[in-house]
Design goal:
The complex is a heterodimer. Chain A has 25 helices and 21 strands. By secondary structure, chain A is an alpha+beta fold. Chain A has 4 domains: 216 residues, no CATH class; 201 residues, no CATH class; 230 residues, no CATH class; 134 residues, no CATH class. In chain A, the strands form 2 sheets. In chain A, strands 1, 2, 3, 4, 5, 6, 7, 8, 9 and 10 form a 10-stranded mixed sheet that branches. A 6-stranded mixed beta barrel of chain A has the order 12-14-19-16-18-17. In chain A, α2 crosses α9, α14 packs across α22 and α22 packs antiparallel against α23. By secondary structure, chain B is an alpha/beta fold. Chain B has one domain: Rossmann fold (3-Layer(aba) Sandwich), CATH 3.40.50. Chain B is 35% helix and 27% strand. In chain B, α5 packs parallel to α6. The radius of gyration of chain B is 18 Å and the shape is globular. The chains are: A alpha+beta, B alpha/beta. Chains A and B meet through α1, α8 and α9 of A and α1, α2 and α3 of B.
Chain lengths: 848, 237
Amino acid sequence: MSFVVRMLLRELRSSWRRLIFFFLCVAVGVGGIVALRSVIQNVRVALMAEARTLTAGDVYLRTDQSWTDDIRAIVDERLREIPGIGRTETVDTTTMVRVPGEGRVRTKVVELRGVQPQFPFYGRFELGSGERYSYELLQDRGALVGPELLTQLGLQVGERIAVGDIEFTIRDVIVSEPGRQLGGFSFGPRVLVAFGAVEETGLLTFASRANRQLLLRVPDEAGVDPLVERLEEDLREAFVRVGSYRRTESRIERNLGRTENYLSLLGFVVVILGGLGVWSVTRVFVQQRLRTVAVLRCLGATTARVIAIYVLQVAALGLGGSLLGVGVAQVALWSVPASLTDQAVTAAGLGTLSMALTGSAVLQGVAVGVLVSLLFAVVPLLDIRHAKPLLLLRQGAASERRGVDWLQSGVVAVVGVALVLVAGWQASSLEVGLYAVGGFAVVAAVLHLIGRALTLAIQPLQTSTWFPLRHAVLNLTRPGNQTRVILLSVGLGSFFIIGVQVLQSNLLSNFALELRDDSPDMFLIDIQEDQVAGLRATLERRTETTPQLLPVLRARVTGVEGKTVQINNVGEARRARLGREYTVTYRSRLEENERIVAGEFWSEEPASVPEVSIEEGLQTERGLSVGDLVRFDVLGRPIEARVTSVRAVDWNDSRSGGFMFVFRPGALEGAPHSYVAFMKGPADRVARARLQRDIAAEYANVSVIDGLEVIRTVRRVLDYVTMTISVVGGIALFSGTLILIGAVAMTKFQRLYESAILKTLGANTRLLTTMLALEYGVLGALAGAVGSVGALGLSWVLTRQVFEVAWFASPLTSAGGMLLTALVVGVVGVVSSIDVLRQKPLATLRAE
Amino acid sequence: MIELKGVSKTVTSGGEPLTILHPLDLSVPSGQFLSIIGPSGSGKTTLLGLIAGLDTPSTGDVIIDGVKITSLDEDRLAQLRSSKIGFVFQFFHLIPSLSAFENVMVPLEIAGSPRPADKAAQLLSEVGLTDRGHHYPSQLSGGEQQRVAIARALANDPPILLADEPTGNLDSKNGQLVVELLMQVHTSRNTTVVMVTHDAEVAARSEVLLTMRDGRTDVSVPSAFPRGAEEEKAVER
């Protein structure tokens, strides 16, 4: 074995420079995996430490309706069995606050929470003043508010805000609070007041949106799970969600685990790209080492020993690259600015977040790096078997090869399976691994085919009369060319980047579409029946448009007697994915964005039973159809309605809104309901703010949602998403460039000889540079074209199938991406060949 | 002892069978210095490749010290080469990434020799390159590279030394030096030497001359061979 080890060390001494790209390719991918996994694992550790803080109690019961006497009785009876149990209630609603006083036009949508003295059971508030939180701060109409409310309304602690008819004094600022869900969407800043004060504001009308929560503290931790199970059983038929911090814990655990695995899969994709680089570098390396191998064989070394030398070399480089990747990950995490971490930590309501690498992330990253290096290197390394010592007597003797190489085919199959296993391990699911590797293989195959077609398409250029162009094209098809490898690696990189850009411009144009001049941009919710006339008059006067006021009710499906679907209770409805609360309306005519695909939208004859029209999706995805009988619970009142029509709704045109269930007028008028209004608000900022203020002052229970603000928020989220994908695409492109440089560098020796001959035949440096630039420019243009075509496909699938919005081709982005790729590849090609161009021909020829 | 029995080589060229070596019986006793001479394309190198087991004959058998090498697999052949055959090539074929010293060490290491460094140093001194051991092949002249190659070929004290136009790539002075070295090896170690050359002057110094033309052979004793002890040895056999 000592011979193998010694040869390994000697080979490394001379070949590490040639294999540096191998090294870097692995390092980039491993760095990605290690950094992503470490961050998520740290977040998980931080979250687990505070799971109870996130729920603020051991067990919670939540409902978006009032606690009925029945439910209270059931809960009271159950809790009586457990001595020493603590209970406290909270109520949450979204509402408007305004600044009281003459001439002040400032209003803001906030999330109002009322709490009782015992809240919270776990965790603690952190206040701006540094004082300890106590319930006394909320007594006598005190309020604690999120810091952004103060800046947005220009207020200070000690000043007053008005909610409905009641004024509150701001006593302090909430820096962080327990019981706020991680990553939950928020309509506005938090305002915390005493539980009783929420009732006094008059906001909690029968139909208004409020979430009520009953928090329990269980004296014996072992009692948590049984209590949750019993309460769930007790409240099976009620619209109450029962849970515990343990469930939150396991849900967060699951979600984070999934995120970690999917992100690691992205890292794995980068490692695979690196693997492609490894493959290409190894292939050329083996070609250059064939003579050395032949000498070793001639001196008596067996094939196994020679292969062992190179396999060990790959393993050593893979390990080195992986360790470098770990270093890169550590540097990347260190260089995240502390302010950013603090922001994230506060937003998530966490105490501290470590930015250190975790042991398991490092181990996984290194293992994946070494495995992928070996897997991708082993196939080209097998070519060593064909290095016959006869090569030393006769050039070209080694290239004779006949028939199918079964060993190589077998190894390719084993490598494929192994890659699926590694991907499956990374994603913690064999299925996902299979899809990832399969998807990758399909994308690679498609890119390869496109590349082939394009290479054929440029064949006519071989007869060009322009010398540099002719030779550039000929070089792309000469034996031992790197065309396929560069097309694949750079093509995949540009595929990611251009794909993300096209997708982004698509999503943005869809949002622009929704902000057309006639689109509504202000929404009023929770309008009471007796406020409709007055509000309509106010709006008509102030906006000079006719606002649409639609009656809405909140309803849940409790049963279905249908042709294909039978649902008997709430539990079954949940399992049939019909368990959510639907906002429903009633009207006599179709809206502009609707058309009937089945049945009849209210027949001539008067209805004998309540009738309902369903949206197409309920038919295709939930199995409801015309003639089915659906039982609803409309805020406690049961209503049974027959499906008489199916509507297709154009969700892109939301000016008239869209509803899953539309009732025939007559059935619901008696049920408790409220109205919503869509309208185009005043364009002027001040007029807009004034209108919001006036509505808030006059109709305290009505919330105004400013569409412009929502769209801004969505844009921001979209920007984050785009940035994240761009970073991944950037890493992919970076690896692509590395592979490119590696590929160019590897063929340098061949090039040295060629350019020496051309030079002796009279070619000057300028001609050679033009040739190189053309060769790589054409290659880059091909790779860019491959990427662009792929990107169009990707963006089409994502916009149409995932986001379900309209798709636009964006020719500028595609063409720009292609040109940029051509330019980058051309420049990299020429720059990495500079020493080839500068080498004196005699030295090269003499060395040969 | 090298024996060839009915060895021939036919390849397919442009769809037509082309015989580059006609059936040949040859026996090279231990300790003989045999030169193969002939014009380009006459089959010299093919014959050497067959003797070394680098190539397989179309017909016939090659037997080295009683072992029929035509029936050995690649790894057995490698072992055989490691222990019995040393090689010297026209283009030296030193491993460019290894120093001269390391190049000489490699076959010793492959064979698992106990003290490869000492042996390599001794061999380098025998070829007069003690002070050049740490140089890489690209830093050595052609003659020096060929001397390193000879040292490497002798590393495992092989009973047979095969040389493929060892002087073909050298100037006459360096060529002379290399031939002297090979002669010296032959006499001092009693090594069987088979050398391909197209230099008649070099060939004339061998004991037996195999002349090749269009794949056919003719064995003779060169007239220019120095008479004396060497001659008697040749006649005895």
